[in-house]
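Reopening this ticket.

The earlier resolution said the output was attached, but the attachment link was broken on my side. Pasting everything inline this time so it's all in one place.
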Amino acid sequence: MMQRPFRPEEYSLKETSPHLGGAASGDKLTTTYDLVEQMQYLYVRVGKAKELPSKDVTGSCDPYVEVKLGNYKGTTRHFEKKTNPEWNQVFAFSKERIQSSVVEITVKDKDFVKDDFIGRVLFDLNEVPKRVPPDSPLAPQWYRLEERNGHKVKGELMLAVWMGTQADEAFPEAWHSDAASVPGDGLASIRSKVYLTPKLWYLRVNVIEAQDLIPNDRTRFPEVYVKAMLGNQALRTRPSPSRTLNPMWNEDLMFVAAEPFEEHLILSVEDRIAPGKDDVLGRTAISLQHVPRRLDHKLLNSQWYNLAKHVIVDGEQKETKFSSRVHLRICLEGGYHVLDESTHYSSDLRPTAKPLWKHSIGILELGILTAQGLLPMKTKDGRGTTDAYCVAKYGQKWVRTRTIIDSFTPKWNEQYTWEVYDPCTVITIGVFDNCHLNGGEKANGARDTRIGKVRIRLSTLETDRVYTHAYPLIVLTPAGVKKMGEVQLAVRFTCSSLLNMMHLYSQPLLPKMHYVHPLSVIQVDNLRRQATNIVSTRLSRAEPPLRKEIVEYMLDVDSHMWSMRKSKANFFRIMGVLSPLIAVAKWFDQICHWRNPLTTILIHILFVILVLYPELILPTIFLYLFLIGVWYYRWRPRQPPHMDTRLSHAESAHPDELDEEFDTFPTSRPPDIVRMRYDRLRSVAGRIQTVVGDLATQGERLQSLLSWRDPRATALFVTFCFVAAIVLYMTPFRVVVFLAGLYTLRHPRFRHRMPSVPLNFFRRLPARTDSML
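Inline output:
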């Protein structure tokens, strides 16, 4: 099959002009939904009924209510043998799909053959009142039931009928007319929902020593180690170098634990008798509810734990007079941030312990408007269809929009808000196809299909500006890069304190414990894998569930896997960073070879001046950088970054490279020897790819100093350059060199373990990782 020619505009960002927050002239505007287009709905709240007559020959009444508007019909649940039922259900009908001027609310008696008509209430839509929050909810009223001929009958129905928007409090839980085809057990999976990530802690288990061990084989020196298990996480120490009955380790084991602490920490002391054969010398179970929590690096008291051959977690354990025991120091680390996202596009950098949180610096508001040109994701009744919904993740808060049934141009118009504690964070928005409309039991293991995602770094946004753009939804498949459609978003970042936000650029990116007591790269990688597994498991147990494949896609679980395409992209990112230096070297070579005599003469004159007046060197450099920054301000980026297929080398990837990228790990390619070598190569190359990507990130951060990609950071740097130029001009150069030398060679007593302010500022600068697929 011939590949479609690449068109750059197809994957570009498009600025849009939606009618945000607007209503008809004369209507009151909402303040909470000003980043979305208003959608008008007819709401019908069915409260309760009283004194309903009996229609059955048995004298009983099994009532339910049917709300009908044109071709759309919704029903409440029915009650058996009850003349005073209470439903308290809300029905919402989209105004743009209304094909009738009358809404009919009918009370019926459920029967085996044919449901009996009890009575009805009619409302003329021209007489229905309008309600816009923050107005108080419309009070329901009692209405007398009528026959079809208009005569009053026995029984009354409590109703409230009004016209409103999606900002109405009743909107999230209402039955929607566009979901009339969804069965009752699938309704829960189409509603909007807000989720919270479980509170994650690092659990540090310092295994110090054991005493009075009793091996089963006393004719040999024991080779003892400690194995610790928390849920599905299992770690073990190295075998003790002292092969005695009182071994010592002094080794740390790190786990991820989530509140509420449902699982016990199980420790077992084991003796390695032979390869693959271990003898358990004793076990103990520790409840995390009683484990102390620390906020800094100060050591906590250690404790001895008795070992037993059999452990009963929830029952009592018999004590022995002479018991083997193990010496441990266990604590829950509140000073770390538990990484469950890639560090390149984290949405939260706060420590676990709430007392260590700083005040928020602003508000992030996101309006999820519409999608355009979505491709059919599945087949139903012989035709392609898509049931799309969005998921947005920032910090600990996940949001999920309602599912729009059978539409390639869904309109959500839902708005969400997050508190911002650090501007150098990223919000992720994903679009998915719902494959669980028939309820979880009937889905047969179906997985919601990814349509695409968008990442937006907050530091690249100007404050108080509303960004309205259509973002391309791009996915990479084994057949190549594919555009699945576009999603239209409205984003606004509001800063509550500009001074506090500017001050954050000098602060460490991660909490203090990450620098005072750092974790190894291997530990961070393993702990992140455990954290994402815990988050995906917990959220998949919610109702409606945020499924595992959704969470893993949003958190980029497989971002560390080897890919030839990503390696090429990172290599060319480095070349893009080095190309200005190469250009300068070529220019200097031209100066040396007198290619342009006039320029060479001017450079000679400048060189002589700088030699005679060396104090002008640094002011000239900083003033030059200041002027470049001011000059580039005219061409500063006016749009937020988006997924860049050219930067990611997605459109030029070879089919064999894509086949390798989408291969399983471990590989499924035969034969066995190829599988072993192939996996080893990918594992090593994955680490090289990470290093290359990190180098590219540092270089791109250097470029962003003057690119105005982060307007606040560039403003700070340009201002610093201007001030530095003046200060260095007024200060003798020899004094500057002398002070700089003293500072560089200062005594260790005057050095801090925390990173310096320039380093903190540099680490907060944006790179092009946000635009990588």
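Reporter confirms the inline version is readable. The chain is about 25% helix and 30% strand. Residues 371 and 656 are 32 Å apart (CA to CA).
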